[in-house]
């Protein structure tokens, strides 16, 4: 059974949305791909753009979705990422990009309706 982990992320203060997306997709994404390789089956970044076009501060700028084939693989991946060298690289780059105090991570339990 697929396990989905969803993380809500906010860009750091003073960073434009364009610079945030450019950095995430050209730099931080590569770290994610490296540490998730062999564990995750999907690593998707959903950049949020308000429908009203406003450039007001919002709670989050991106919804990150990561799929794992099962809970055991998910747990093993997070345990591997706790290695000081790996987590150090992740955190150092996150500090360039995110307001880390606003990060929220969840395991998703999806329920879909047939329409």
TrEMBL record:
GO terms for molecular function: oxidoreductase activity. Coiled coil: none annotated. It holds the Pfam family EthD. This is Ethyl tert-butyl ether degradation EthD. Residues 12-101 form the EthD domain.
């Amino acid at each position: 059974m697929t396990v989905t982990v969803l993380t809500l992320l906010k860009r750091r203060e003073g960073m434009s949305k364009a610079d945030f997306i450019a950095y995430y997709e050209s730099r931080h994404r590569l770290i994610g791909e490296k540490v998730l390789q062999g564990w995750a089956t999907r690593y998707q970044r959903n950049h949020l753009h308000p429908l009203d076009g406003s450039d007001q501060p919002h709670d989050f700028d991106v919804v990150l979705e990561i799929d794992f084939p099962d809970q055991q693989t998910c747990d093993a991946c997070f345990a591997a990422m706790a290695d000081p060298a790996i987590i150090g690289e992740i955190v150092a780059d996150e500090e360039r990009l995110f307001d880390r105090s606003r990060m929220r991570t969840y395991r998703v339990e999806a329920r879909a309706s047939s329409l």
